[in-house]
Specification:
Layout (H helix, E strand, L loop, with lengths): L7 E10 L4 E6 L13 E5 L2 E5 L1 E7 L2 E6 L5 H7 L3 E4 L14 H4 L3 E4 L4 E10 L4 E6 L10 E5 L6 E5 L4 E4 L6
Parallel strand pairs: 8-13
Antiparallel strand pairs: 1-2, 1-7, 2-6, 3-4, 3-7, 5-6, 8-9, 9-10, 10-11, 12-13
Keywords: Chaperone, Cytoplasm, Ribosome biogenesis, rRNA processing
Family: Belongs to the RimM family.
Main location: cytoplasm
């Protein structure tokens, strides 16, 4: 797999379930079931990504468990516990023009309407009402900021997102 084809991590494999190699699944998708919309999966085992197919999955109480191709014993499943689950970027669904994957916003420069470079998006936090960009300020920030928290509210604070140019234009006071 080439370096520009780094998998997008959608979850991880949890503990074993039963003696036939089933594993609990932790999904980072909006809904737990969403992770099963993608096939094949890539599993990062011993630092290497490899392809794997989900044979079947089901709810087991509040947990979700899955049977993976080639994993038929509890011992083999234990070897996969805590391995990341990923997919290739081209497997991701296309989004409407005004929606973005978080991974595309990470690393974008944040510039306000006065042209002030406020820093780079380091993380995004889901708060319930709206997502919040955690912007790591530049080393020599004129306002002495280390980090800024900007609500991701398009049309109000977020004026333009240029994913290709890795830049976000905001209406935000750099001293706030």
């Amino acid at each position: 797999m080439s370096s520009n084809q780094q998998p997008v991590v959608l979850g991880k494999l949890g503990s074993c379930h039963g003696i036939k190699g089933w594993l609990k699944i932790t999904a980072y998708t909006d809904s737990v079931e969403g992770i099963f919309d993608y096939s094949p999966w890539l599993i990062k085992e011993n630092g290497e990504w490899r392809e794997v197919k989900v044979i079947q999955w089901r709810y087991q109480g509040k947990a979700v468990v899955a049977e993976l191709e080639g994993v038929t014993t509890r011992e083999r499943a234990q070897m996969l516990t805590n391995c990341e689950i990923g997919i290739l970027p081209e497997q991701m669904n296309d989004l409407p023009e005004d929606e973005f994957y978080w991974r595309d916003l990470i690393g974008c420069e944040v510039i306000n309407t006065n042209g002030y470079n406020m820093g780079v998006v380091d993380q995004i936090v889901e708060t319930g009402s709206n997502d919040v960009l955690l912007v790591k300020a530049n080393a020599k920030d004129s306002f002495g900021k280390v980090e800024r928290m900007l609500p991701f509210v398009p049309g109000q604070f977020i004026l333009k997102v240029d994913v290709q140019g890795k830049q976000i234009l905001v209406d935000w006071d750099p001293d706030f």
